[in-house]
Design brief:
- There is one protein chain.
- This protein is mainly alpha-helical.
- It is built from 3 helices and no strands.
- The chain has 2 domains: 35 residues, no CATH class; 51 residues.
- The two termini are 32 Å apart.
Length: 96
C-alpha cells in the first residue's frame, strides 16, 4: 500500500485493545515504514522471571537431545515450545 493510501490509525483506550488491533492487521496498511528510524534502548531490561519447574528426567533428556540437534540451549527450546503452544491455545479460544 503506498503512502497516499494509508489507513487512519485509531485511538486506543487500552494496551489490550491496541494489542488485539495489531494482532489482526498489517502495520504496513497504517504506517509508512520508509520513514522509520532505528532506535536503541540501552537501559531496557527484559521482563523475565526465574521459575522452578520440576520435569521428568526423560522429558529433560529428550528436550536436550532435540535442542542439541537444533544447536540451541534446551531452556530456549522449552520457552519456544511454551510460547508456540500458548499462541495456539489463545487462537483456538478466539475461534470458539
Amino acid at each position: 500500500m503506498n503512502k497516499k493510501n494509508l489507513k487512519t490509525l485509531p485511538t486506543f483506550r487500552s494496551e489490550e485493545e491496541e494489542r488485539n488491533f495489531w494482532a489482526r492487521r498489517d502495520s504496513a496498511d497504517y504506517i509508512d515504514w520508509t520513514k522509520a528510524k532505528r532506535v536503541v534502548f540501552p537501559n531496557l531490561t527484559p521482563s523475565v522471571r526465574t521459575i522452578s519447574l520440576r520435569l521428568p528426567v526423560t522429558i529433560i533428556a529428550r528436550l536436550k537431545q532435540l535442542a542439541n540437534k537444533r544447536d540451541m540451549p534446551y531452556q530456549s527450546l522449552l520457552k519456544m515450545f511454551l510460547a508456540e503452544r500458548l499462541d495456539e491455545e489463545v487462537a483456538e479460544q478466539g475461534r470458539r
